[in-house]
Amino acid sequence: TGIFPGALIGLLGHAVLGRRRESGFPPTPILVLLVGFVLGVGMDGLNSYWNLVTGSPLLYEPRQELRLLTGTLNGLAMSALLWLLVNFSFWRDPSPEPAIRDGLDLAILLLMEVPWVVLVLADVPILLPVLALVSTAGVLTMLSLVFAVLIVILFGWANRYSCWREALTPLLLGFFLALLMIGMMDLFRYGAFGTITGFPGM
Hints:
The structure is a single chain. The chain has a two-stranded parallel ribbon. The chain is mainly alpha-helical. Helices cover 70% and strands 3% of the residues.
């Protein structure tokens, strides 16, 4: 669906923009647009699920290209929120300034997502392993950061770090929990359905 690769690219985009400590929400028009990205993937997912269950689309004929696009945009929105949470909870001196300051920042982030969408749609066999690695990296990165944020909050470690090296402990713990979660989900799926590559009949 492009959600996790889109999120990974979004995180990299925030780094490219130099948003090291910014923890404020973007201006209202941009925030509304990001919320729209989230609602868009939800609506597209509902439409696809309805088509799967009933055999007829709810609003329109589902298309993989649209799933990829809405998923990637949703991933960008997720990365914007997670970037704020990490900066707000990790650093000693988080800045109240927004990480996405204006339309130009958002345009740069959107442009950085374009190569991913183009490469996936190109469906070049030699690139499939690379795209799979990007997807895997996106899943691990997002889950690791989410768990790391929860760890610093639950253990009372919030706002005590001044650089990524100092934050290595919660980051590694978050990475371990991400691997554990993925492993447990695969074990459950294998025990329930006899496969770890998908769900029978879907």
